Amino acid sequence: GDARVRGQTGVVSERRGSYPFIDFRLLNNTTLSGEIGTKKKVKRLLSFQRYFHASRLLRGIVPQTSLYLLDEDYLGQARHMLSKVGMWDFDIFLFDRLTNGNSLVTLLCHLFNVHGLIHHFQLDMVTLHRFFVMVQEDYHSQNPYHNAVHAADVTQAMHCYLREPKLASFLTPSDIMLGLLAAAAHDVDHPGVNQPFLIKTKHHLASLYQNISVLENHHWRSTIGMLRESRLLAHLPKEVTQDIEQQLGSLILATDINRQNEFLIRLKSHLDNQDLRLEDAQDRHFMLQIALKCADICNPCRVWDLSKQWSERVCEEFYRQGDLEQKFELEISPLCNQQKDTIPSIQIGFMTYIVEPLFERWAQFTGNTPLSENMLNHLRRNKAKWRSLLHKQHSSSRSNDHSGQVTGSQEQTLNEEETP
Questions:
Q1: Is 54 annotated as a binding residue?
Q2: Start and end of every PDEase domain (predicted)?
Q3: Per the domain annotation, does 52 fall within a domain?
Q4: Domain count, the chain
């Protein structure tokens, strides 16, 4: 619902945004499905749904995921896929279909079992499942990109990275649990718009977090709230749970793309000086931050068919924001103008300036393992394919231009794309 208070000290209460025209919790519904009733009716509906969900949880009834209602063929295929969950070509879209939209819950239950976390932390399976369901349901399925399938994809990638020999031999059960939890919850309750949008529309979250890592802070605080509400870690000493909450925050906040250079400079310094000591908890935590950052933006490093789907989804989300900004007569944000910002140009820029520098350093850290080499190879091939598609777009534009000349905006785009 619009009002939500979770936990005690340090957990924010959520209220509706202050911008008078936009109901952010229904961002995609209102823009795509037309009028769906008055805000009052919608608010009452959502509040009821949240109350009903919470009341079932508080009574200890585990919501039944549809996975268990699927026929044996689907279950068998899902189980077979889980046996290959450490493979880089894991198809999370297929897995989500086989689990009837429960990829995140199913994946987390499996990985917590595989890594021995349930036994090590003496976790109650009913409570654990309840918590995973809460996390999955707090993602917005209407978002083309920032939804529970993205969270599952990042979690599967994180699992692969946690198995890299350079890191795996030093990881403690706490490290592994933190890595998986942070991956699963790093975008929880994402509204489908970016931080600048929240700031310029004076959304209450922007004010609450003083325009600094607004979404990441919200993802973290929401996660802490669900952890406390579920009482998953209630049996652990208070100082242990407080440490887990703080480290989760440190990991999730590291996914803020505005801090990319900060982390890259620090990683480069460690690698150049060869002073990473993974026996040290601080250095291990830093590398977990880097691993999560890699997992979060690993789409360009996947096989083309998967990578292309993610690229189209993230750009669709950008374009929806642009449409919303246009509707409310706001300046259209960078990358969000469907008329000017093409998918190939967005992806080439993203790969060149964000993805490549990070994954080249990650490969340096891992010692160019087969996984790192595989990811970099996919990255190079995918970038070449986007360049080819961009070239075709420009050729098509030129042929359609009656003067036979490249327009000024096209020429600028071409020049930008040729910039190293």
A1: no
A2: 70-393
A3: no
A4: 1
